Amino acid sequence: MRGFVTDCDCYLSDIVPLHVHVPSEADIFGVHSKLVTGETGMPQPIEQLSWVENYTYEGLVIAIFILFCYLLYNFRGDILQLLRFLAMHTSSEKIYAEQKLFFKRFINLSTLLGILLICGLSVKLCDYFGLDGRLPATGILNVNLIPVILLLIPGIILLYRYLVTGIVGAVTRNQAFFKSYRFMSHLSGSVSFLILTPFFLLFALGDGNSTTFFIYLTITIVAALYLLYLGKSYRFFIERNVSILQWILYLCTVEWFPVSLLLLEAMRMD
């Protein structure tokens, strides 16, 4: 039997494997995608963005630092006067009688510093204690808006206190009493904000064991300053022959009610 030679037998070459790139799941679904196996078939939770790792919070910290330095440089005499008031070496009535236009400007700027500081402390403490994780997952736009939203809360509380004391003073025809008390409250708040600002700046953008130490130290100082303010508030009422019951009623209605309402709403969001 004869064999035949064909063209295919003459020109057939060796098979060369083709080097083709096979796309992975990262190429198709993105670098953050994960391969789900049968054991881990449950959907993975969306990662919660940090409240302090955004430009809004960092800008807030820078604004606090600049305003604090401005107050230290331009109002050194007024700050010393506030420290004497804190140490009970002078009274709020004497400061009110001797105040000048620059002192009113200092009080307004220190109040602005306090609003920024309360917002920054709230953001940092919520992030440190993991309270931000109780809220639904937010996009980067909402995370950047959180400091702005928290910035409105102290302003709303101050407006509420001003309106309530104004209405009560008008009804009782005792505007001078509440005007003097608001001034005393502004003095206590201003000196407290100036004392707390350096401690906040120490841990505002940091992390680690030193941050933990300064956070708990700041919380302790906040508690001590508020107790000192309560003592001044109590003395203010007693010196004007106002009963303790009315003082407690004032604290519950004007100062504690808006804060407790905000805490209650925050607990409901959990």
TrEMBL record:
UniProt keyword terms in alphabetical order: Membrane, Transmembrane, Transmembrane helix
Give the transmembrane region(s).
55-75, 106-125, 145-171, 183-205, 211-230, 242-264
Instruction: Please name the InterPro entries in this protein's record.
Output: DUF4271
Work out whether the entry's keyword set contains Transmembrane helix: yes
Q: Does the keyword Membrane apply?
A: yes
A Pfam family? DUF4271
What domain of life is recorded for the organism?
Answer: Bacteria
Put simply, this protein is called DUF4271 domain-containing protein
Recorded source organism is Alistipes indistinctus YIT 12060
Source taxonomy lineage? Bacteria, Pseudomonadati, Bacteroidota, Bacteroidia, Bacteroidales
